[in-house]
TrEMBL record:
Pfam families according to UniProt: A_deaminase
Alphabetic keyword roster: Hydrolase, Metal-binding, Nucleotide metabolism, Zinc
Organism this protein belongs to: Halomonas cerina
Residues reported to bind substrate: 276
Broad class of enzyme this protein falls into: hydrolase
The protein, known as: Adenine deaminase
UniProt record similarity statement: Belongs to the metallo-dependent hydrolases superfamily. Adenosine and AMP deaminases family. Adenine deaminase type 2 subfamily.
Enzyme Commission code: 3.5.4.2
GO terms of biological process kind: adenine catabolic process; hypoxanthine salvage; nucleotide metabolic process
Length: 324
């Protein structure tokens, strides 16, 4: 089964590129850039990754990315991840990027986008790995800041596939970002949003109605609202579920308790994803394998899930045909 899941061409639709920063590279970049980390070793970094909710993770996630300073750092970050992903049988990656977190510490948008852009072109050439880019807005920051970011990103609109909404969910409902998502739509960008990870089913509904999203990131709390489930099924709305993330952030206690099987039984369109692989204990293959152990799913189930991701990906029809 491991060989089968590894060889299965997999698309990663829910990944934060800053969440691929492994402790080894974090130490290397801290040295390179003279950044002081509150850890003395790779082991000490890993030991700190004991989260009790989304916020306790986000605190370390924002601290970890402080080592990223130059375009080369961002290129190294993404290339390191692309190589690991390729080794796991990942053929396409859609990455969220959080520019506001970098702008806030004096790293320019050009630094971020040029570094990541170089890595994306190299990955396509050197690894036959295609990618998409999702400009994410931090929902715990003001909506005006998100609007400003989208306008400042004008030189990069062509390289973007979508806008997204991430960071601390509770208390920051999707409707706060109605205007910026409307602007993104006018620019021809697709829209996705984290909703129903820690937040209530109402946030999922709001993401659909107010932000006009084509995918819901996480969405695991939708089962609390049968009417919403019916609608998500009717619209064949894609949910990018992140099993290991949900365990690490205590959305569920154990993977065996995860609503994934119930979500599939309800007829929802599910994809499996890794979210922040460096922080949550594994990449896309590890997430597939964990589901195999927890739920005993057959090859057919994984073929279906991997197919959903290829179908929902922001990729050319030629590439989709190649991967199907
Ligand atoms: C995130 Cl797991 C998760 N949820 C919301 N925002 C995020 N940013 C990075 N990882
Ligand atoms: Zn996420």
């Amino acid at each position: 089964m491991r060989d089968f899941l590894k060889a299965l061409p997999k698309a990663e639709l829910h990944l934060h590129i800053e969440g691929t920063l492994e402790p080894e590279l974090m130490m290397t970049l801290a040295d390179r850039n003279g950044v002081n980390l509150p850890y003395g070793s790779v082991e000490a970094i890993r030991a700190a990754y004991d989260f009790h909710d989304l916020q306790s993770f986000l605190d370390l996630y924002y601290q970890g990315m402080s080592v990223l300073r130059s375009a080369r750092d961002f290129e190294d970050l993404a290339m390191d991840y692309f190589r690991r992903a390729t080794a796991e049988g990942v053929v396409h990656v859609e990455m969220h990027v959080d520019p506001q977190a970098h702008l806030a510490r004096g790293v320019s948008l050009a630094t971020v986008m040029e570094g990541l852009g170089r890595a994306r072109r190299r990955a396509e050439r050197e690894l036959d790995l295609t990618s998409a880019m999702i400009l994410a807005f931090l929902r715990d920051r003001p909506a005006e800041e998100a609007l400003d970011l989208l306008e400042r990103a004008a030189p990069y609109w062509e390289s973007l596939d979508a806008v997204g909404l991430d960071s601390a969910e509770l208390g920051h409902p999707p409707a706060k970002f109605a205007e910026v998502f409307q602007r993104a739509k006018a620019l021809g960008l697709a829209r996705v949003a984290h909703a129903g990870e820690e937040g209530p089913p109402d946030y999922i509904l709001e993401a659909l109605d107010v932000l006009d999203v084509c995918r819901i990131d996480h969405g695991v709390r939708c089962l609390e609202d049968p009417t919403l489930v019916e609608r998500l099924c009717e619209e064949a709305m894609v949910l990018t579920v992140c099993p290991l993330s949900n365990v690490r952030l205590k959305v569920v206690e154990r993977l065996e308790d995860h609503p994934l099987p119930a979500m599939r039984d309800a007829g929802l369109t599910i994809t499996l994803n890794s979210d922040d692989p460096a922080y949550f204990g594994g990449g896309l293959l590890d997430n597939y394998l964990a589901c195999r152990w927890a739920f005993g799913w057959s090859r057919e189930v994984f073929l279906d899930l991997a197919g959903n991701a290829i179908d929902a990906a922001f990729m050319s029809e030629a590439r989709r045909a190649e991967l199907r």
